[in-house]
Amino acid sequence: MTFSLALNDDQIQLRDWVHEFAEKVIRPAAPEWDEREETPWPILQEAAKIGLYGYETMVTLRSDETGQSFPILAEELFWGDGGIGLAILGTGLAAAGIAAAGTLEQVIEWVPQCYGDENNVKVGAFCSSEPEAGSDVANMRTTAKYDEASDEWVISGQKAWVTNGGIADVLVVQAVVDADLGSRGQAAFIMKADTPGIAAPQKLRKHGLRASNTADIFFDDVRVPGTALLGGKDKLDEKLARAREGQKAGGQAAMATFERTRPTVGAMAIGVARAAYEYALEYAKGRVVFGRPIIENQAISFMLADIATEIDAARLLVRRAAWMGATGERFAAAEGSMSKLKAGRVAVWSTERAIQILGGVGYTREYPVERMHRDAKIFDIFEGTEQIQQLVIARSISGVRLV
């Protein structure tokens, strides 16, 4: 399929539909839920009622052969608010993990359970990072040992910074099944969060994205059936055998999930950046200093011009990466990492500039750009830090195994 920047009718309708929800439902509620630092269940339920939150919508958007629908959705939701946007989209990471590693039967059984329905909304969580294994996935310590007598897996360890941790109904858990193989000896498992031995005693209090629940999850000899292994044991055994023989063992499950979601994360960042830019632009038009609107000062208007240019540049990289992922194009120069790197930097820089344009009031919680700036910082950190993205890109363009 030829890459095009023009949105088709369905994509335009999607953009306008989500934008209206973000404008009328999310934005008015954003300050309250940021202060409460709680999951906005009523908003999730409203999203479920109109079909915005649910597995059917996610499947439809993921089937867009151009790859553009999900970034459109993400940008508009995060334009509304970063924390509430992540509360709505966070379950998608778990669903993507199931789709990346699971069998068709597992996808059909478990993905709907991640979302629930409009009368009983649920959320799912993808559990990969650990205190000593964030960017360094190969340093993972959570283990899964197979008990052949009972056909069960016994999982022990700790997962850190889990989006929807402590409130999720379904967990997708990455664990080590063969420590000698490093990241190639890992597999993904799916389970109900109320399985005996699972605990999430305390949510984390965060700098930004406060309406999205984050917590560490502990696994103490958690027993799950053999069917909990995503992809099945035969497939895992074949993968491990190839790895032990030094052959290519196929995709590493956590990395496969991140590759499916990284352009979407870039779109989230763009949504936050765009929201701050638009607010600063309108403020500059109306704020009068020395007898004229401050936008008439080159220092302000040029700053806004730079912000607009950077946001457009980041969006183009995200749209290209999303198209490449959907059409199977090879990421020869780590274009996916480029999109996430650029978008994260633009979000942090744009929101900081927006505060500067507003001046002293921009630093207060009476104006939304302060919250947007706090929300933006995470895009330099999660799903691969800024430095990890640079490393991936540098390796791709140089062919050198940098460390």
UniProtKB/TrEMBL annotation:
Protein name per its UniProtKB record: Acyl-CoA dehydrogenase family protein
Domain Acyl-CoA dehydrogenase/oxidase N-terminal span(s) in chain numbering: 9-114
Acyl-CoA dehydrogenase/oxidase C-terminal domain span: 250-397
Entry's family note: Belongs to the acyl-CoA dehydrogenase family.
Highest taxon in the source lineage: Bacteria
InterPro entries: Acyl-CoA_DH_CS (IPR006089), Acyl-CoA_Oxase/DH_mid-dom (IPR006091), Acyl-CoA_Oxase/DH_mid-dom_sf (IPR046373), AcylCo_DH-like_C (IPR036250), AcylCo_DH/oxidase_C (IPR009075), AcylCoA_DH/ox_N (IPR013786), AcylCoA_DH/ox_N_sf (IPR037069), AcylCoA_DH/oxidase_NM_dom_sf (IPR009100)
Organism: Mycolicibacterium komossense
Keywords from the named record: FAD, Flavoprotein, Oxidoreductase
Acyl-CoA oxidase/dehydrogenase middle domain sequence ranges: 125-222
Cofactor or coenzyme needed: FAD
Stored PROSITE patterns: ACYL_COA_DH_2
Keyword Flavoprotein: yes
Lineage per the UniProt record: Bacteria, Bacillati, Actinomycetota, Actinomycetes, Mycobacteriales
